[in-house]
Amino acid sequence: MSKILKVIAATVAGFTAGVLLAPKSGKETRADIKAKAEETKEFASEKAAQVTQAAKEGAASVKKGAKSTEREAKNMAKSAKNSGVVMRDEAERLVDEAKVRGGRVAATAKRTAKSVERDVKRNVK
Q1: Crossing angle for the helix pair 2-21 and 26-123, nearest 10 degrees?
Q2: Are 32 and 24 a contacting pair, CB within 8 Å?
Q3: Over the stretch 60-93, which tens digit does the pLDDT of each residue have?
Q4: Cα 120 to Cα 98: distance, rounded to the nearest angstrom
Q5: Residue 12 in 3-state DSSP?
Q6: Domain that holds residue 83
Q7: C-alpha triplet 50, 58, 62: angle, nearest 5°
Q8: How many CB atoms lie within 10 A of CB 56?
Q9: If residue 41 lies in a helix (H) or strand (E), which one and from where to where?
Q10: What's the structural domain count of the chain?
Q11: Torsion sign over Cα 54, 60, 61, 66
């Protein structure tokens, strides 16, 4: 934006210097000043419109990117939640399996202990 202002300022300064140094009547000088002011106003309006359009397009791009990012974040959260549920369910299944296997190990250990006890009683008389 400062570039535009510099261009406008340079244009005005150049025109003013030209008008003041030119050997013209007051009426001609006022007409030139008016014409140049209109020209400068049109130039400024065009640049303002361009800047406005660029800002709108930039805002639209940011909005689109934000929506895309939001959608991706929601999908990641959903995926993480689903993974958590799967992990919880698997952990519960493993706990149940460990209980069953632990029960089998305990039962086998009891049978083995009784068998050893019988063997000892039979052989130690």
Answers
A1: 170
A2: yes
A3: 999 999 999 999 999 999 999 999 999 999 999 9
A4: 32
A5: helix
A6: 2-123
A7: 170
A8: 10
A9: helix 26-123
A10: 1
A11: positive
Tokens of 50: 């361009």
Lowest mean pLDDT across 34-43, 75-84, 104-113: 34-43
- DSSP secondary structure letter of residue 24: -
List all residues 6 or more positions away from 15 whose beta carbon is below 8 Å from its beta carbon: 32, 33, 36
Residue 25's CB: how many other CB atoms inside 10 A? 8
- The token pair at 36 is 């140049």
Q: Using only C-alpha atoms, what is the Rg of the chain?
A: 45
* Mean pLDDT of the residues in the chain: 87
Entry pTM: 0.47
